[in-house]
């Protein structure tokens, strides 16, 4: 018997099927998209970190015993992301990201740390992703909030879990691209390949030498 050809729309239906499966398990879809913190805060993106706004007043209906995780993923892993895979497992290990682990989970906390209403103006309430260097090579910390391995792009979402499994999730963020460090050869120079500081130093030394030479001539 001949094999039945695969329906061309099967792959495009996968995200919808995952959404329906989540709904069947009682997973609440929160209409919130994570985003970078506001412009007044400097260093929103670096070569290995980025700063997100805290999800304040977002998971109001989630019980206080639920744990809210930040999911960091490469864009290709978003459509097939499985909410049922627990944090800290090999499939969600930071140390394999992104080569063997296309997504990891970190920055776990409870709703008590994301209170509602938001904090008063002037108080900084952000999350810096990639700030933990102490556990970057410690494989005993699979949920490490370690430095990101490259410029990305990355996409993130918040996922609330309790003992029975996932209970609520936010939308996925837009792609976040980090800064790229410039090689030394790309640093602009002035004049004939010398920096402005070198030119100034050379000028000062030339003047001092001229003064010293004039003093010696006067003595003779």
Automatic annotation (TrEMBL):
Note the InterPro entries from the entry.
Answer: Uroplakin-3 (IPR024831)
Q: Which domain of life is it from?
A: Eukaryota
Keyword Membrane carried by entry: yes
- Provide the Gene Ontology terms for cellular component: membrane
Keywords, A to Z? Membrane, Signal, Transmembrane, Transmembrane helix
Residues in the signal sequence: 1-26
**Where would you find the membrane-spanning parts of this chain?**
196-219
Looking up PANTHER family in the UniProt record yields: UROPLAKIN III, UROPLAKIN-3B-LIKE PROTEIN 1-RELATED
Name of the featured protein: UPK3L protein
Q: Which organism is it from?
A: Pelecanoides urinatrix
Classification lineage: Eukaryota, Metazoa, Chordata, Craniata, Vertebrata
């Amino acid at each position: 018997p001949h094999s039945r050809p695969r329906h061309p729309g099967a792959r495009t239906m996968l995200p919808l099927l995952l959404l329906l499966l989540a709904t069947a398990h009682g997973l609440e879809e929160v209409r919130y998209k994570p985003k970078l913190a506001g412009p007044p805060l400097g260093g929103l993106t670096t070569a290995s970190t980025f700063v997100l706004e805290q999800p304040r007043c977002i998971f109001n209906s989630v019980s206080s015993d639920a744990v809210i995780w930040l999911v960091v993923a490469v864009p290709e892993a978003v459509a097939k992301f499985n909410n049922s895979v627990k944090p800290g497992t090999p499939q969600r290990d930071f140390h394999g990201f992104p080569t063997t682990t296309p997504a990891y989970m970190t920055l776990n906390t409870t709703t008590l740390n994301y209170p509602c209403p938001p904090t008063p103006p002037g108080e900084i309430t952000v999350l810096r992703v990639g700030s933990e260097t102490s556990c970057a090579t410690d494989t005993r910390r699979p949920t490490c909030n370690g430095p990101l391995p490259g410029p990305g792009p990355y996409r993130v979402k918040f996922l609330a879990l309790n003992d029975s499994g996932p209970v609520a999730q936010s939308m996925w963020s837009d792609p976040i691209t980090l800064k790229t460090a410039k090689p030394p050869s790309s640093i602009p120079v002035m004049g004939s390949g010398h920096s402005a500081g070198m030119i100034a130093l050379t000028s000062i030394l030339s003047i001092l030498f001229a003064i010293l030479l004039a003093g010696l001539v006067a003595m003779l």
